[in-house]
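We were asked to recover a plausible sequence for a given structure. The inputs and outputs are reproduced exactly as logged, with field labels preserved.

PROBLEM: sequence recovery
POSITIONS: 684
GIVEN STRUCTURE:
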């Protein structure tokens, strides 16, 4: 028996092979270094009984139909019109690569594992001597926990990203397939597999993320015998005929400190290992984005006025959104024509950029290079560059360019490169507002290549991944970008929830969040500036309202919160976001804890009125039980007049032990719905 083990501080994955495709003997707690892996492989062998074949086919890294596997296979491929049923035998293996091959068929699989900090990354490569049609290839298949009653999937929609769906484990398959050609609003490629009883702060949980920006599929299956398997891969039918195919890396983590253990493993992984920061020493600048202020109506004098006001509020980067190119007066035309609209900018963008820089801000620009409107010079010149059938249904009046083509990529590189060479721009908001006509892995590979090429030519330019808000958020796109536009919803109430759930996977440093207009443009809700500002301050802070609408009070609050964010962003950049367990469903709360544990900030949002009168104490987490902390409710002046009592935090700072804060919890003042308390903590 060959065995392998992969360890992170909180997990061990043990694989074994008896000459065929390896299987996971153990994916769970970190095992002692001297664990006898041969014994584990034997100990794991299941019994058989009546009504079944005489040995249970192993749940391998790629379960195959030819082995009488009773569930979904990890490989579905054809050659010459016949399904492939390879008999895969171990041929080569080292510490990180395991190869199995069917020499007769000339088909092999390679499983590649890498330990990256708290995360294990696993992918499958298929190599064939002659071309095959691949329908489905799973990244290394792993068993799901047996001590679990439910799993947590992620779904969403425009302005409602990252919704968590708790589903019971039942016999059969739960399958999610994002076929829109993006990681998607619909089913972003994340899932959590908690053991029974796990909460945010305690218990055992496993989590997976398929690091791919194109269409993808997950299936979680309870087999007839009770075992459970989880498969991830590109959406079925994504690949074109070929001899070499590769899944994206499947990122694995496990925690015995609740969902937060997995959350911080992903947060740290993405921030510290996935994202390539152009200037890691440069603090994240406060953004101003003009989209919800002016939309397509660009007037240089107005934009200059807005820029001056944004700078006065504390903004450090001005992002000019959609509407600056072609003849783009609405969303029906001009995508593809990446030349400055001389009707709106007679002297080009330089006068606006100079003005913005004169105000002490840098300049960012919106682009959507993968897309084209039929009403554009580009579509008229190159109708053959468009992906999908001519009679396809459009999305936002636009179509997708075929980025698998070298000439298309070269053209787009030329356009964006020229803009970046001709202007002093340090940031692109890179949008993607239309679903693909069908999933297509070559398209996603093409986008990665284009982004790579641009990053090499302009390494100082940061890129934000936007897709109608959060339609393309994953660790694949984040290899080439540095920020995600989490949602088009600038409604702080919605954002509070979206940010909370997205924090299971995403660090604050890359998650954009803006203070929106008083009356939210995507929900119609009117929210107080205090709530809007503090919710944006939970992540990479920015503003997006028309600053001309601000009252004196609103401007003062915004200036204050912006200043707070600037003076804290240094440590917040690398802080862990910990979701707090709140027994009051009206309260959505998180603790951001400095990596060295010396300070924290708690944001306790009140999404609705509570069922009971007195706020339930809010328990903190991951503090040093024996240390003492100075805690201060920094926005206590925001207490409403109906908070008539004298909770100590309303009067001033308190010194309390970690044990008390984690066991009893914080006693916060009563507050209105749609408000948020901000509590700073410092370890003494
Ligand atoms: C998308 C984005 C928005 C904005 C518009 C511009 O919807 O998500 O933030 O940039 O495009 O057209």
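RECOVERED SEQUENCE:
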């Amino acid at each position: 028996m060959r065995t392998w083990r992969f360890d992170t501080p909180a997990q061990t994955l043990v694989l074994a092979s008896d000459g065929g495709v390896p299987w996971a003997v153990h994916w769970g707690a970190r095992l002692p270094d001297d664990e006898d892996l041969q014994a584990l492989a034997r100990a794991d062998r299941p019994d058989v009984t009546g009504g079944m074949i005489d040995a249970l086919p192993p749940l391998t890294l790629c379960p195959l139909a030819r082995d009488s596997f009773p569930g979904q296979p990890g490989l579905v491929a054809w050659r010459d019109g016949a399904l492939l049923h390879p008999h895969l035998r171990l041929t080569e293996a080292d510490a990180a690569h395991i190869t199995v091959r069917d020499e007769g068929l000339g088909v092999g699989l390679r499983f590649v594992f890498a330990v990256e900090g708290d995360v294990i990354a696993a992918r499958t490569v298929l190599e064939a001597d002659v071309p095959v049609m691949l329908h489905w290839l799973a990244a290394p298949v792993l068993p799901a926990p047996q001590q679990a009653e439910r799993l947590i999937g992620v779904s969403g929609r425009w302005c409602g990203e990252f919704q968590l769906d708790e589903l019971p484990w039942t016999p059969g398959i739960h399958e999610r397939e994002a076929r829109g050609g993006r990681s998607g609003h619909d089913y972003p490629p994340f899932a959590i597999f908690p053991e029974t009883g796990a909460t945010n702060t305690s218990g055992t949980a496993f989590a997976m993320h398929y690091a791919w920006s194109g269409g993808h599929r997950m299936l979680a299956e309870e087999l007839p015998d009770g075992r459970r398997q989880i498969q991830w891969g590109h959406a079925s039918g994504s690949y074109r005929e070929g001899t070499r195919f590769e899944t994206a890396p499947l990122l694995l983590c496990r925690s015995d400190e609740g969902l937060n253990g997995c959350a911080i493993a992903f947060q740290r992984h993405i921030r510290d290992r996935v994202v390539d920061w152009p200037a890691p020493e440069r603090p994240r600048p406060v953004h101003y984005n003009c989209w919800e202020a002016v939309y397509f109506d660009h007037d240089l004098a107005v934009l200059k006025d807005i820029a001056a006001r944004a700078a006065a509020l504390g903004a450090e980067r001005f992002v000019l959104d959609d509407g600056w190119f072609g003849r783009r007066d609405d969303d029906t035309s001009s995508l593809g024509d990446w030349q400055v609209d001389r009707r709106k900018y007679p002297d080009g963008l330089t006068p606006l950029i100079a003005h913005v820089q004169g105000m002490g801000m840098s300049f960012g620009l919106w682009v959507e290079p993968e897309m084209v409107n039929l009403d554009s010079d580009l579509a008229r010149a190159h109708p053959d560059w468009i992906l999908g059938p001519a009679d396809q249904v459009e999305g936002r009046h636009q179509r997708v360019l075929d980025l698998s083509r070298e000439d298309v990529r070269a053209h787009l590189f030329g356009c964006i490169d020229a803009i970046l060479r001709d202007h002093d721009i340090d940031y692109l908001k890179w949008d993607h507002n239309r679903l693909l006509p069908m999933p297509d892995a070559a398209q996603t590979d093409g986008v990665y290549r284009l982004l790579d090429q641009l990053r090499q030519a302009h390494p100082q330019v940061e890129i934000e991944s936007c897709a109608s808000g959060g339609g393309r958020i994953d660790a694949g796109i984040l290899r080439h970008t540095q920020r995600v536009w989490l949602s088009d919803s600038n409604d702080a109430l919605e954002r509070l929830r979206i940010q909370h759930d997205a924090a299971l996977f995403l660090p604050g440093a890359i998650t954009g969040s803006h203070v929106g207009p008083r009356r939210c443009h995507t929900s119609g809700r009117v929210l107080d500036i205090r709530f809007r500002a503090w919710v944006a301050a939970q992540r990479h802070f920015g503003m997006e309202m028309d600053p001309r609408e601000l009252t004196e009070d609103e401007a003062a609050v915004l200036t204050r919160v912006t200043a707070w964010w600037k003076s804290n962003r240094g440590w917040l950049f690398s802080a862990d976001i910990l979701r707090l367990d709140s027994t009051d469903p009206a309260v959505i709360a998180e603790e951001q804890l400095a990596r060295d544990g010396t300070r924290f900030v708690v944001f306790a949002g009140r999404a609705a009125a509570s069922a009971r009168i007195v706020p339930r104490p809010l328990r903190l987490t991951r503090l040093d039980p024996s240390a003492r902390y100075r805690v201060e409710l920094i926005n206590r002046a925001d207490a409403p007049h109906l908070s008539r009592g004298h909770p100590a935090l309303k009067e001033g700072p308190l010194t309390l032990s970690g044990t008390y804060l984690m066991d009893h919890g914080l006693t916060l003042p009563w507050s209105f719905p749609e408000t948020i308390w901000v509590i700073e903590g410092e370890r003494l």
